[in-house]
Fold these 2 entries.
Entry 1:
Amino acid sequence: MSSTGGGGRGKAKPATKSVSRSSKAGLQFPVGRILAVRNDEELSKLLGTVTIAAGGVMPNIHQTLLPKKAGQKGDIGSASQEF
């Protein structure tokens, strides 16, 4: 038995980061950059009206779409329409 540890056979391969086909082709999408710009106050002022192509959108869920908190009082079993 070997005294080096590792628990496997042979030499361990270095961990490699998986690469997508788009990055292999040299394509870069500015999604991370648009998030950085919109979250930074100074950059957001500077580039406030600029449209960054293929930049995506800021993740946002409107308050009315979020589930209501359990601590609120209300009609829990009421129907939306009366028959």
Note: DSSP finds three helices and no strands in the chain.
Entry 2:
Amino acid sequence: MRGHGEVLLHQRPVDWILYNDLIDLLRVSTPSGPGNYVPALDKAENLLMSNQCGSCALLLLFLSDGRPGDNIAGGSALTNWQAACCVK
């Protein structure tokens, strides 16, 4: 994981080529550094909200190596992110 959100594959059809690319990512990716979920969740939200076609099927994979490392006072990063999304 990294300290920022990163899009690894974008707007790809769901086919065997995508499957093989995901397997390749699995084989070469290694966890490193802090795993901050909030920047990645913000990026995921922006990507999902950029879809202007309501009939378009979307698939989003959120890859993580475990527990978030975000240090946010007053609760977990995921709980704070969920609360912030509900306020918008």
Note: Residues 16-87 form one domain.
